[in-house]
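User: My advisor, Dr. K., asked me to get a structural model of this assembly before our group meeting. I'm new to this, so sorry if the format is off. These are the inputs:
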Amino acid sequence: MSNTNEILERLTTESYEYGFVTDIEMDIAPKGLNEEIVRFISHEKNEPDWLLQWRLKGLHHFQKSEMPHWQNFRMPEIDFQSISYYAAPAKKTKLNSLDDVDPELLATFEKLGIPINEQKALTGVAVDVVFDSVSVKTTFREKLQELGIIFCSFSEAVREYPGLVKKYLGSVVPYTDNVFAALNAAVASDGSFAYIPKGVRCPMELSTYFRINAQNTGQFERTLIIADEGSYVSYLEGCTAPMRDENQLHAAVVELIALGNAEIKYSTVQNWYPGDKEGKGGIYNFVTKRGICKGTNSKISWTQVETGSAITWKYPSVILRGDNSTGEFYSVALTKNRQIADTGTKMYHIGRNTRSRIISKGISAGHGSNSYRGLVQVGAGAENARNFTQCDSLLIGDECGAHTFPYIEAKNNSAIVEHEATTSKIGEDQIFYLKQRGIDTEKAVALIVNGYAKEVLNQLPMEFAVEAQKLLAISLEGSVG
Amino acid sequence: MISRDIDTLYDQFIADFETKSVLMADEPDNVREFRRHSFEHFRLLGFPSVKNEEWRYTHIAPFLREVYSTSSEKPGSLDQSFLSSLQIRSLDGIRILLFNGKYLPEFSELPPDSGIHVSALTGAYQERLVSDYLGKIADASKNHFVALNSALFEDGLFIRVQDGRRIERPLHVIHVFSSESNMFVQPRHLFVVGKASEVSLVESFLNFKNEAEIFINDVSEIEVGSDARVQHYTIHGGCENARYIHHTEVRQAERSVYNNYKASFPGPAFLRNNLNVSLNGENIESHLYGLYLAGGRQVVDNHTIVDHLKPNCQSNELYKGVIKDEASGIFNGKIYVRKDAQKTNAFQKNNNLMLGKKAIVDSKPQLEIFADDVKCSHGSTVGQFNEEALFYLKSRGIGEERAKALLIHAFAYDVLEKMPLASVKSHINKLIDEGLKT
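Assistant: The format is fine. Below is the predicted structure of the whole assembly, which you can bring to the meeting.
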């Protein structure tokens, strides 16, 4: 046991791997949220007037809204006036080649293991890199363009494809949706935009890497992905942030639109700074993610591995509007130290013969608290809707908590909805078995947890599955005593 | 029927308390204090709206818009044939009759056993147990209707089972509600089951069809002593003009067993069952079984809370709903496992058979776990008849109607088989058949 305690001691004091700060010249807007700053952001990005007006509507809605109180954690006080809403690396010339990128920035991403350099890049992954408020580089753009695929930063999309942006922006997550969606609409700085034309199967994984660097800022990116009829795209996002004592807010909005026969697969490996073991610092990850299966036979699949953030609060959802459409949600959420996760999904069955599948695996360790909250709603017209939900919770240590709040609402008598949930402690006999084979407790736990999460990790593209597995193992280190 | 704002009813109760406190002046100080205290809670809470998470799926307002009189009627003469019609065949229970929430000893059987005491609650204020437990088990500070009942209850039952007694015959408590004009009635009951004793309690709820709407807001508090065993059945039937908020709050001491069996049938327009069990000791077992058959435009809502406070306890919950026509079936089950409650096993399941084209099912099971050495699970399903099973029966020459009825009985069987009293089981089976015909 003393050995385990030493490991515990060492690892809990060991720092978050990505906690460094890049010293880079930044343009940072003054703190505070008001019309002026919204106009400033819009002006800085040369946005058309309709977008500015939309932002202002978002701002006004935000100012009218109250903070929600139904969540399963104590809402931290967020002073929206002490946040700076825009931070960008100072260099503003258009980047055509890597030589134009600030070497400091390049080094940052190298350190994070994110391939900006196409030669060194993993083949088959195109990356859009977002540093604080702006996108710094999108790789493989030209190659994708040959197929008619648009993959660029959100600001570029506003300039170059205003028609598409105007048509779909806010169509799935309107600014009235919730208080953070309103805030995002007002101050969204950048994000990724992807459009897959009719009948095209995107040959590589599209990916966005988010990095918060500046102090006293928040990150409010906006991602919009449109899969036109018969197309397919797999999209990934990853994120890290430096270690800081104060909490930083990340309030993003992701909108997915799948037209007839299209499929979107959206994967997240979330590793924002979780705060230290006393719960000091860390990111508040309050994100609104929603997709709509607009056409018949369309499919949207969310996969998330959540290991970071002080508080993770999000419900990636699918509106199953088209007949025969499918929604999926696969999630692994790990909380340790003082981390909190209140996450899950919503599946709205509207069309006929729609199907949804939810697999959620929560792991709570230390003083972590993990909640699954899910809604399966079958509308009166949704003939033959089918849902299967499974959510399991694994408890490691006696100070943590696991909670399950599923909501099932059926208004059509042809619906078949199944929900099951289990909560249990990590199996002593399994650990014993592995120890017997010469595997130490720490590794045994990692092995068991990986086995437990396998069903979800299998949904990730290969490189990321390996990455996520490592991430889970690292995050768990020190939680066994 | 005159429709009005529910605020009017709220105002009526506020005014009622003023007048009633004069009438209640002869009650003991502790009871008056309890009423006053609870009234303050109600005054702040008012009636719940769908914005309240506990009432999210249950729109209560339409049922509170009627003009209700808050004083209940006395019974006319009750003849023998009427009384025997209330019996459950071959139950051989000790009959305890309540009319509009008032205990009628003249129509009840006096307990043959000295180990058991039955009286009107208001007549038992001098009993130490009443002052010890009344209002101590059901918390009026958070629940709108418990607060209202605690402030303004009229009367009800007080039953006490002495320590170490095993009551052979089940107690059959029959609640009859009847009124010529709209009535809002608030019965209050207290059951104290002594240490190492054993008792079966069967409660039937009935009303008769007429023009008058009856709103029943009753609260029962049940204290289960250590090593005691309680089998508790409630059967809600009756007619459309009844609306129920039926609140039961149970507190169990170490090594006790409390089993609750609920069955409800088409009839009352509205039925809300709250069943809260708190496992306040080690090595406790609690089993909650429920069967609800809802028809017409009925709203049937079952809310349960199982609160594990201490280690080494077990709880098991199974609620099954058959929702016909345009009825709504709502289920919310919460399991709490507190930090101290290590080695808890807690299971919960809700299955719904959705038959009506316009039926609605809302199910919300819920687990909240703060201990780590536990085994907990819950499940919830919504579905229809198994086509293959139906086909199988039809291919054997069983008509569709009969085949469906068979499958519903089979569906209900999982709950019924848990009931130790065969007479109650067959009574419920009969009610299922009647319920399917309506």
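One thing worth pointing out at the meeting: Chain B touches chain A through 36 residues (CB under 8 Å).

User: Perfect, thanks a lot.
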